[in-house]
Amino acid sequence: MKHQILLSSSRIAMLLCMLLSIMPVYGAYTRGDANNDGVANITDVTTLINYLLHDGEGTSYYSVSYADMDRDGKITISDVTSLINYLLMHSASSDAPTRTFTINGVKFTMVRVEAGTFTMGCDTVVLSGYFNPLSPEHQVTLTKDYYIGQTEVTQELWKAVMGSADCAYANPLNPMNMIGYSECERFCNTLSELTGIEFRLPTEAEWEFAARGGNKSRGYRYSGSDNLDEVAWYRDNTDSYMLCPVATKAPNELGLYDMSGNAWEIVADHFYIYSSDPVIDPLHLEYDSQRDVIRGGSTASHATECYPCYRSTLTMGSWGALTTMRLAFTAY
Ligand SMILES: [Ca+2]
Ligand SMILES: [Ca+2]
Ligand SMILES: [Ca+2]
Protein backbone atom coordinates (compact mmCIF):
# COMPACT_ATOMS: atom_id res chain seq x y z
CA MET A 1 0.00 0.00 0.00
CA LYS A 2 2.81 2.37 0.96
CA HIS A 3 4.61 1.51 -2.28
CA GLN A 4 1.51 2.31 -4.33
CA ILE A 5 1.15 5.66 -2.67
CA LEU A 6 4.80 6.52 -3.30
CA LEU A 7 4.48 5.62 -6.97
CA SER A 8 1.38 7.72 -7.34
CA SER A 9 3.07 10.52 -5.44
CA SER A 10 5.93 10.63 -7.93
CA ARG A 11 3.44 10.99 -10.77
CA ILE A 12 1.77 13.76 -8.85
CA ALA A 13 5.14 15.46 -8.35
CA MET A 14 5.35 15.85 -12.12
CA LEU A 15 2.00 17.58 -12.06
CA LEU A 16 3.09 19.98 -9.34
CA CYS A 17 5.12 22.00 -11.84
CA MET A 18 2.00 22.46 -13.99
CA LEU A 19 0.08 23.61 -10.97
CA LEU A 20 2.48 26.26 -9.70
CA SER A 21 0.92 29.06 -11.75
CA ILE A 22 -2.64 28.16 -10.80
CA MET A 23 -4.80 30.81 -9.22
CA PRO A 24 -6.02 29.99 -5.73
CA VAL A 25 -9.65 28.94 -5.31
CA TYR A 26 -11.67 30.76 -2.71
CA GLY A 27 -15.04 29.43 -1.64
CA ALA A 28 -17.62 29.55 1.12
CA TYR A 29 -16.42 26.35 2.76
CA THR A 30 -13.15 26.31 0.84
CA ARG A 31 -13.36 22.96 -0.78
CA GLY A 32 -9.93 21.34 -1.15
CA ASP A 33 -8.39 23.45 1.62
CA ALA A 34 -6.44 20.65 3.33
CA ASN A 35 -4.23 22.93 5.45
CA ASN A 36 -7.13 25.13 6.53
CA ASP A 37 -5.72 28.51 5.53
CA GLY A 38 -8.90 29.59 3.73
CA VAL A 39 -7.59 29.00 0.21
CA ALA A 40 -7.38 25.91 -1.97
CA ASN A 41 -4.12 25.92 -3.88
CA ILE A 42 -0.96 23.96 -4.60
CA THR A 43 0.09 23.80 -0.96
CA ASP A 44 -3.01 21.75 -0.21
CA VAL A 45 -1.88 19.11 -2.67
CA THR A 46 1.42 18.77 -0.78
CA THR A 47 -0.45 18.76 2.54
CA LEU A 48 -2.56 15.87 1.31
CA ILE A 49 0.42 13.94 -0.02
CA ASN A 50 2.28 14.39 3.26
CA TYR A 51 -0.81 13.25 5.13
CA LEU A 52 -1.00 10.11 3.01
CA LEU A 53 2.72 9.39 3.36
CA HIS A 54 2.67 9.71 7.14
CA ASP A 55 -0.76 8.35 8.03
CA GLY A 56 -1.68 6.26 4.98
CA GLU A 57 -5.12 6.18 3.46
CA GLY A 58 -7.94 6.37 5.92
CA THR A 59 -10.35 8.45 7.92
CA SER A 60 -9.58 12.12 7.75
CA TYR A 61 -9.42 14.58 10.62
CA TYR A 62 -10.79 18.09 10.63
CA SER A 63 -8.92 20.38 8.25
CA VAL A 64 -7.87 17.60 5.91
CA SER A 65 -11.51 16.64 5.58
CA TYR A 66 -12.04 19.78 3.46
CA ALA A 67 -10.00 17.94 0.85
CA ASP A 68 -12.14 14.81 0.94
CA MET A 69 -13.10 15.62 -2.62
CA ASP A 70 -15.42 12.65 -3.17
CA ARG A 71 -17.01 13.03 0.29
CA ASP A 72 -16.58 9.39 1.28
CA GLY A 73 -15.16 10.26 4.71
CA LYS A 74 -11.68 8.98 3.85
CA ILE A 75 -8.62 10.59 2.40
CA THR A 76 -7.20 8.43 -0.35
CA ILE A 77 -4.97 8.96 -3.35
CA SER A 78 -8.09 9.60 -5.47
CA ASP A 79 -8.75 12.74 -3.42
CA VAL A 80 -5.31 14.00 -4.42
CA THR A 81 -6.00 13.50 -8.12
CA SER A 82 -9.47 15.03 -7.70
CA LEU A 83 -7.95 18.05 -5.98
CA ILE A 84 -5.46 18.48 -8.82
CA ASN A 85 -8.27 18.24 -11.41
CA TYR A 86 -10.29 20.73 -9.41
CA LEU A 87 -7.42 23.22 -9.34
CA LEU A 88 -6.74 22.69 -13.04
CA MET A 89 -10.41 23.37 -13.88
CA HIS A 90 -10.20 26.65 -12.03
CA SER A 91 -6.94 27.54 -13.73
CA ALA A 92 -8.56 27.95 -17.16
CA SER A 93 -8.51 31.57 -18.21
CA SER A 94 -11.62 33.12 -16.73
CA ASP A 95 -12.36 35.08 -19.91
CA ALA A 96 -11.85 32.21 -22.35
CA PRO A 97 -14.50 32.15 -25.12
CA THR A 98 -15.25 28.52 -24.32
CA ARG A 99 -14.47 26.26 -21.38
CA THR A 100 -14.51 22.49 -21.63
CA PHE A 101 -14.95 20.23 -18.63
CA THR A 102 -14.56 16.47 -18.26
CA ILE A 103 -16.66 14.56 -15.74
CA ASN A 104 -15.96 10.84 -15.42
CA GLY A 105 -14.68 10.80 -18.98
CA VAL A 106 -17.55 12.82 -20.49
CA LYS A 107 -16.61 16.17 -21.99
CA PHE A 108 -18.91 19.17 -22.29
CA THR A 109 -18.30 22.74 -23.41
CA MET A 110 -19.60 26.02 -22.06
CA VAL A 111 -19.66 29.13 -24.29
CA ARG A 112 -19.06 32.61 -22.92
CA VAL A 113 -21.81 35.16 -23.52
CA GLU A 114 -20.82 38.80 -23.09
CA ALA A 115 -23.12 41.01 -21.06
CA GLY A 116 -25.47 43.20 -23.09
CA THR A 117 -28.83 44.83 -23.57
CA PHE A 118 -31.61 43.45 -25.76
CA THR A 119 -35.33 43.54 -26.34
CA MET A 120 -36.96 40.56 -24.61
CA GLY A 121 -40.30 39.16 -25.69
CA CYS A 122 -42.18 39.88 -28.90
CA ASP A 123 -45.35 41.83 -29.61
CA THR A 124 -45.74 40.59 -33.17
CA VAL A 125 -46.36 36.92 -32.36
CA VAL A 126 -49.95 36.76 -31.24
CA LEU A 127 -51.00 33.63 -29.42
CA SER A 128 -54.55 32.56 -28.79
CA GLY A 129 -55.71 32.83 -25.21
CA TYR A 130 -56.75 35.57 -22.89
CA PHE A 131 -53.31 37.08 -22.62
CA ASN A 132 -50.08 36.89 -24.56
CA PRO A 133 -47.18 35.63 -22.40
CA LEU A 134 -44.62 36.86 -24.97
CA SER A 135 -45.73 40.48 -24.67
CA PRO A 136 -44.96 43.30 -23.90
CA GLU A 137 -41.52 43.65 -25.40
CA HIS A 138 -39.19 45.22 -22.84
CA GLN A 139 -35.58 46.19 -22.54
CA VAL A 140 -33.39 43.81 -20.55
CA THR A 141 -29.83 44.51 -19.49
CA LEU A 142 -27.64 41.63 -18.40
CA THR A 143 -24.75 43.12 -16.44
CA LYS A 144 -22.58 40.03 -16.07
CA ASP A 145 -20.90 37.83 -18.64
CA TYR A 146 -21.95 34.22 -18.29
CA TYR A 147 -21.28 30.82 -19.73
CA ILE A 148 -24.03 28.70 -21.23
CA GLY A 149 -23.96 25.09 -22.43
CA GLN A 150 -22.98 24.67 -26.06
CA THR A 151 -25.59 21.90 -26.17
CA GLU A 152 -28.51 20.62 -24.15
CA VAL A 153 -27.40 18.33 -21.29
CA THR A 154 -26.91 14.92 -22.86
CA GLN A 155 -27.87 11.60 -21.36
CA GLU A 156 -24.19 10.61 -21.13
CA LEU A 157 -23.37 13.76 -19.16
CA TRP A 158 -26.35 13.24 -16.86
CA LYS A 159 -25.20 9.68 -16.19
CA ALA A 160 -21.58 10.77 -15.60
CA VAL A 161 -22.75 13.23 -12.96
CA MET A 162 -25.72 11.43 -11.37
CA GLY A 163 -24.78 7.77 -11.91
CA SER A 164 -27.82 6.92 -14.04
CA ALA A 165 -30.02 8.55 -16.66
CA ASP A 166 -33.49 7.05 -16.68
CA CYS A 167 -35.41 8.64 -19.52
CA ALA A 168 -36.96 8.06 -22.92
CA TYR A 169 -35.28 8.12 -26.35
CA ALA A 170 -32.20 6.40 -24.92
CA ASN A 171 -29.01 7.45 -26.67
CA PRO A 172 -25.92 8.82 -24.91
CA LEU A 173 -25.86 11.86 -27.19
CA ASN A 174 -29.58 12.66 -27.02
CA PRO A 175 -30.75 15.29 -24.58
CA MET A 176 -31.64 14.04 -21.12
CA ASN A 177 -35.44 14.15 -20.76
CA MET A 178 -38.31 13.34 -18.41
CA ILE A 179 -36.86 15.82 -15.92
CA GLY A 180 -38.38 18.75 -14.08
CA TYR A 181 -37.12 21.76 -12.16
CA SER A 182 -36.05 19.88 -9.03
CA GLU A 183 -34.09 17.26 -10.99
CA CYS A 184 -32.31 20.10 -12.79
CA GLU A 185 -31.41 21.71 -9.46
CA ARG A 186 -30.07 18.41 -8.12
CA PHE A 187 -28.01 17.92 -11.27
CA CYS A 188 -26.53 21.42 -11.02
CA ASN A 189 -25.74 20.98 -7.33
CA THR A 190 -24.00 17.65 -7.89
CA LEU A 191 -22.02 19.01 -10.83
CA SER A 192 -21.04 22.04 -8.74
CA GLU A 193 -19.75 19.75 -6.00
CA LEU A 194 -17.70 17.82 -8.54
CA THR A 195 -16.17 20.89 -10.17
CA GLY A 196 -16.23 23.65 -7.57
CA ILE A 197 -17.96 25.87 -10.15
CA GLU A 198 -21.48 27.09 -9.43
CA PHE A 199 -23.41 25.52 -12.26
CA ARG A 200 -27.07 26.53 -12.46
CA LEU A 201 -29.95 26.86 -14.86
CA PRO A 202 -29.75 29.92 -17.10
CA THR A 203 -32.20 32.66 -16.18
CA GLU A 204 -35.00 33.11 -18.69
CA ALA A 205 -33.41 36.37 -19.88
CA GLU A 206 -29.97 34.78 -20.21
CA TRP A 207 -31.53 31.96 -22.19
CA GLU A 208 -33.36 34.30 -24.59
CA PHE A 209 -30.37 36.62 -25.05
CA ALA A 210 -28.16 33.62 -25.90
CA ALA A 211 -30.82 32.15 -28.23
CA ARG A 212 -30.94 35.47 -30.10
CA GLY A 213 -27.17 35.32 -30.58
CA GLY A 214 -26.19 37.74 -27.78
CA ASN A 215 -24.20 40.75 -28.96
CA LYS A 216 -23.44 38.84 -32.18
CA SER A 217 -27.15 38.58 -33.05
CA ARG A 218 -28.07 38.90 -36.71
CA GLY A 219 -31.71 39.13 -35.82
CA TYR A 220 -32.81 35.80 -37.25
CA ARG A 221 -36.35 34.55 -36.80
CA TYR A 222 -35.14 31.34 -35.14
CA SER A 223 -31.97 30.71 -33.14
CA GLY A 224 -29.27 30.98 -35.81
CA SER A 225 -31.31 31.13 -39.03
CA ASP A 226 -34.47 32.29 -40.77
CA ASN A 227 -34.75 28.73 -42.11
CA LEU A 228 -35.88 26.53 -39.23
CA ASP A 229 -34.84 23.31 -40.93
CA GLU A 230 -31.18 24.45 -40.87
CA VAL A 231 -31.00 24.84 -37.11
CA ALA A 232 -33.74 22.80 -35.47
CA TRP A 233 -35.31 19.40 -35.02
CA TYR A 234 -39.04 20.10 -34.83
CA ARG A 235 -42.29 18.42 -35.81
CA ASP A 236 -41.86 18.80 -39.57
CA ASN A 237 -38.47 17.06 -39.78
CA THR A 238 -38.48 14.44 -37.03
CA ASP A 239 -39.59 10.83 -37.03
CA SER A 240 -42.60 10.53 -34.69
CA TYR A 241 -41.22 13.52 -32.71
CA MET A 242 -38.28 11.43 -31.44
CA LEU A 243 -35.49 13.42 -29.80
CA CYS A 244 -32.26 13.65 -31.81
CA PRO A 245 -28.55 13.69 -30.90
CA VAL A 246 -27.50 17.19 -29.85
CA ALA A 247 -25.50 19.47 -32.18
CA THR A 248 -26.58 17.74 -35.39
CA LYS A 249 -28.10 20.93 -36.86
CA ALA A 250 -26.28 24.23 -37.43
CA PRO A 251 -25.38 26.39 -34.40
CA ASN A 252 -26.46 29.99 -33.82
CA GLU A 253 -24.30 33.14 -33.90
CA LEU A 254 -22.70 32.22 -30.55
CA GLY A 255 -22.02 28.61 -31.53
CA LEU A 256 -24.93 27.23 -29.49
CA TYR A 257 -26.89 24.23 -30.75
CA ASP A 258 -30.57 23.34 -30.53
CA MET A 259 -31.72 26.57 -28.87
CA SER A 260 -34.56 26.16 -31.36
CA GLY A 261 -36.08 22.69 -31.23
CA ASN A 262 -34.97 19.22 -30.13
CA ALA A 263 -35.94 19.29 -26.42
CA TRP A 264 -37.65 22.08 -24.47
CA GLU A 265 -35.28 23.67 -21.92
CA ILE A 266 -36.15 24.50 -18.35
CA VAL A 267 -34.90 27.88 -17.16
CA ALA A 268 -34.35 29.25 -13.67
CA ASP A 269 -37.34 31.61 -13.56
CA HIS A 270 -40.84 30.58 -12.63
CA PHE A 271 -43.49 31.98 -14.94
CA TYR A 272 -44.54 35.61 -14.58
CA ILE A 273 -46.22 38.15 -16.83
CA TYR A 274 -43.84 40.64 -18.43
CA SER A 275 -44.00 44.35 -17.74
CA SER A 276 -42.95 47.00 -20.26
CA ASP A 277 -40.45 48.56 -17.83
CA PRO A 278 -36.74 48.16 -18.55
CA VAL A 279 -35.16 45.62 -16.18
CA ILE A 280 -31.68 44.64 -15.10
CA ASP A 281 -30.68 41.00 -14.58
CA PRO A 282 -34.28 39.79 -14.16
CA LEU A 283 -34.89 36.54 -12.25
CA HIS A 284 -38.35 35.62 -11.03
CA LEU A 285 -38.10 32.97 -8.34
CA GLU A 286 -41.51 33.58 -6.76
CA TYR A 287 -43.88 30.69 -7.39
CA ASP A 288 -46.97 32.89 -7.71
CA SER A 289 -47.84 31.34 -11.07
CA GLN A 290 -47.31 27.72 -9.97
CA ARG A 291 -45.66 27.23 -13.37
CA ASP A 292 -42.09 26.48 -14.50
CA VAL A 293 -40.89 28.03 -17.76
CA ILE A 294 -39.62 26.00 -20.70
CA ARG A 295 -38.02 27.49 -23.82
CA GLY A 296 -37.09 26.79 -27.40
CA GLY A 297 -39.67 24.27 -28.58
CA SER A 298 -39.14 20.56 -29.18
CA THR A 299 -39.30 17.80 -31.77
CA ALA A 300 -43.09 17.96 -31.41
CA SER A 301 -43.33 21.75 -31.78
CA HIS A 302 -44.70 23.93 -34.51
CA ALA A 303 -42.34 26.58 -35.89
CA THR A 304 -43.75 29.36 -33.72
CA GLU A 305 -42.72 27.54 -30.55
CA CYS A 306 -39.11 27.56 -31.79
CA TYR A 307 -38.86 31.38 -31.72
CA PRO A 308 -36.24 32.66 -29.25
CA CYS A 309 -38.99 34.74 -27.60
CA TYR A 310 -41.49 31.88 -27.21
CA ARG A 311 -42.45 30.80 -23.68
CA SER A 312 -44.20 27.68 -22.60
CA THR A 313 -44.72 26.27 -19.10
CA LEU A 314 -44.96 23.13 -17.01
CA THR A 315 -47.09 22.79 -13.91
CA MET A 316 -44.89 23.49 -10.88
CA GLY A 317 -42.61 20.53 -10.15
CA SER A 318 -43.83 18.33 -13.00
CA TRP A 319 -41.58 16.97 -15.72
CA GLY A 320 -41.92 16.96 -19.48
CA ALA A 321 -41.34 13.99 -21.79
CA LEU A 322 -39.56 16.25 -24.27
CA THR A 323 -38.00 18.53 -21.68
CA THR A 324 -34.33 18.90 -20.84
CA MET A 325 -32.00 21.60 -19.51
CA ARG A 326 -28.94 23.59 -20.48
CA LEU A 327 -26.22 24.52 -18.02
CA ALA A 328 -25.04 28.00 -17.12
CA PHE A 329 -22.67 29.70 -14.69
CA THR A 330 -21.75 33.30 -14.07
CA ALA A 331 -18.34 34.33 -15.39
CA TYR A 332 -15.94 35.60 -12.73
CA1 LIG B 1 -5.10 25.76 1.79
CA1 LIG C 1 -12.23 10.64 -0.20
CA1 LIG D 1 -33.63 22.83 -27.30
Task: Describe the fold and architecture.
The protein is α+β, with helices and mostly antiparallel strands. The chain folds into two domains: 9-91, Type 1 dockerin domain (Orthogonal Bundle), CATH 1.10.1330; 98-330, paralog of FGE (formylglycine-generating enzyme). The protein is built from eight helices and 15 strands. The strands form five sheets. It has a four-stranded antiparallel β-sheet. It has a four-stranded mixed β-sheet with strand order 12-11-9-14, with helices on one face. Strand 3 (98-103) and strand 4 form a beta hairpin. Helix 1 runs antiparallel to helix 2, helix 1 (2-19) runs parallel beside helix 4 and helix 2 packs antiparallel against helix 4 (77-91). The longest helix is centred in the N-terminal third of the chain and has 18 residues, at 2-19. The protein starts with a helix and ends with a strand. The site of one calcium ion (CA) has 8 residues, from helix 2.
Average pLDDT taken over every residue:
89
User: pLDDT under 50 segments (min length 5)?
Assistant: none
Specify the biggest β-sheet: 4 strands, antiparallel
- What is the CATH homology-level superfamily of the largest domain? paralog of FGE (formylglycine-generating enzyme)
What is the CATH topology assignment of the largest domain?
paralog of FGE (formylglycine-generating enzyme)
Look at the helices and sheets and give the structural class: alpha+beta
Supply Rg.
Answer: 22 Å
- CATH architecture title of the largest domain: Alpha-Beta Complex
* SS elements, strand count: 15
Span between termini: 41 Å
Report the β-strand fraction as a percent range: 15-25%
CATH class of the largest domain: Alpha Beta
